[in-house]
Amino acid sequence: xxxxxxxxxxxxxxxxxxxxxxxxxxxxxxxxxxxxxxxxxxxxxxxxxxxxxxxxxxxxxxxxxxxxxxxxxxxxxxxxxxxxxxxxxxxxxxxxxxxxxxxxxxxxxxxxxxxxxxxxxxxxxxxxxxxxxxxxxxxxxxxxxxxxxxxxxxxxxxxxxxxxxxxxxxxxxxxxxxxxxxxxxxxxxxxxxxxxxxxxxxxxxxxxxxxxxxxxxxxxxxxxxxxxxxxxxxxxxxxxxxxxxxxxxxxxxxxxxxxxxxxxxxxxxxxxxxxxxxxxxxxxxxxxxxxxxxxxxxxxxxxxxxxxxxxxxxxxxxxxxxxxxxxxxxxxxxxxxxxxxxxxxxxxxxxxxxxxxxxxxxxxxxxxxxx
Length: 371
Prior knowledge:
Residues 23-356 form the Enoyl-CoA hydratase/isomerase domain. The protein contains 16 helices and nine strands.
């Protein structure tokens, strides 16, 4: 058994177990809502590569450690305080984080064995990156899925430019620009989840995967499927038509103007949300999702690696929208980011275009070998 679990580096932030044919990965940073550190990304990569090569392991499941007496979190994203510190210090580990995270995202999408993501509770940002490539994405009524990066002056990365672009209509643009959190029914309807298991069944499901008989990959999948129920009805207010009407427009300015001209509460609230986001990074985000519809996942991840480099370096850390957004949300916590420019009318089209120019030559790109 011991040789099925390689040595890990994250100091207990990733826990690995084997039960029969099933390898279990537990994100074990509950005090930080299981947000991903670089060491956790490295451990997940090590485990997945090791288990891919071991015939004894036929399936993998990933879940988040629980918090006593508190709502669950699968994974709330990446370690944004680390991003802030590393950017200000010029720490090359910042670039390593994104290179290795995006490689892990690609590995999961291409994984040769069934990979099951138990997406109970908060699933945001980096949590979406390690779940959207799963063969089976399991949700509960406690699941809250979001790509909230525009709120910190970033863009929906970890493959978000690709998987949000696969959503029907212009749902992807709406999710990407607003960072809106959606529940299980909408997530399944829009292709961001597969099956629904009620929360009262969740402990029994996890117990079965950890300690029940798991002789085959088919049995692992059956352990989930025998507990599947109908998800709550999606789209209760019929918002899909509204989303398409507004978010299919060509520019962020057009979307805001369209929302302003609508006289319903949803449009008003949506516009207010967008007015709090970084204008520049909303323009970058909109272009990313639009391009994502014609890109492979590998090409999208290479593009995102270019974009995230520019997010921290194009203007330098002192003027980075991302550094400022993280400062306002997680460091000073004043929730008053000073975006430059502050309004959509002042977006510099040339600067937005510069985000899409790779800082690396083709054979130098850190993700050049992804296929």
